Amino acid sequence: MSRAPDLARGLDPAKLRPAFERFGRLHLPGIFAPKDAQAIHAALVAAPYHRSLTASGKSYDIALETLAAMPPERRAELEAAILEGGRTGFQYQFDAWRLSDLMEANQRTGGVLAPLEGVYDLLNSEAFLGFVRTLTGDDACAYADAQATRYRPGDFLTAHDDDVAGKHRLYAYVLNFTPAWRPDWGGLLAFHDADGHVSEAYTPTFNALNIFRVPQQHAVTQVASFAGAQRFSITGWIRER
Ligand SMILES: O=C(O)CCC(=O)C(=O)O
Ligand SMILES: [Fe+2]
Predict the structure, then answer these.
(1) Across residues 174-198, what is the average pLDDT?
(2) Which of 54, 97, 98, 157 to mutate for ligand 1's pocket (most ligand atoms within 8 Å of CB)?
């Protein structure tokens, strides 16, 4: 698949709008044709991930080989900082590949990664942005950024609201490409309410779109040590210029 995938036929954003407006979020299964979804999944499995994490309040992108070669004492320090941060505040660790940075720099590689490049093109097409404008009633939706993510057992992203000054994020989206998952395995996209409860959580699934308004408190719960798979997504924000 080197062309951009099409959104599934029969999705009517005007009809979905009341459901989106109710809680400012929506889960839409069956977002692409099954064949396209399979090609995207294969590309997500093959993507050249790095480790994305925060430690002691700083964000790091670390090559997986660098992490593997880190002296054990340094590695233990890093892990201790991550545990401490997760206990008390905003913290994450997962694997990422920054698709939109490469696309914006015109660095297409094609080949096995072509389906992800196609998704980037779709996300920035009139077909998708128009869909989101009608779904949300928000004409300001101008473009989307994107990264591929892979969560392995132990990975997580603690509560945050996606609102970063200067980034002009209007809506967050997550395209799920995890073929088989059990809610017990964690990795849930959980929405937190003002009382500290989880008001709703979306289980990783295959070929679905989650879309939600920014700002909104949410987290990805830690993937269980016994999870039998990795959680694959393409995620980012629909932004205003
Ligand atoms: O992967 C997800 O379900 C959500 C990711 C997320 O919240 C983020 O990257 O800010
Ligand atoms: Fe988020």
Answers:
(1) 97
(2) 157
> Exposed/middle/buried for 215, CB within 10 Å: 0-12, 13-18, 19+?
middle
From the list 21, 29, 83, the residue with the least C-alpha distance to 53 is: 83
pLDDT band at 2 (very low <50, low <70, confident <90, very high): low
Tokens of 14: 């005007």
**Centre of ligand 1 from the C-alpha of residue 16, in Å:** 22
Name the band, by pLDDT with cuts 50, 70 and 90, for residue 161: very high
pTM of the model as a whole? 0.97
Q: Are 92 and 152 in contact (CB under 8 A)?
A: no
CA–centroid distance for 189 within its chain: 10
DSSP, residue by residue, 79-122? HHHHHHHHHHS--EEEEEE-HHHHHHTT----GGGHHHHHHHHH
Residue 8 has pLDDT above 80, yes or no: yes
Dist. CA 44–CA 37, nearest whole Å: 10
What distance in angstroms lies between residue 111's CA and the mean position of ligand 1's atoms? 27
What residue owns the CA closest to ligand 1's atom 3? 189
Question: What's the fold here for domain 13-239?
Answer: Jelly Rolls (2.60.120)
Distances, alpha carbon 157 to alpha carbons 31, 86, 197, 222, in Å: 24, 8, 17, 7
Strand partners, 92: 157
Residue pointed to by tokens 């670390």: 62
| Banded pLDDT at 43 (limits 50, 70, 90) | very high
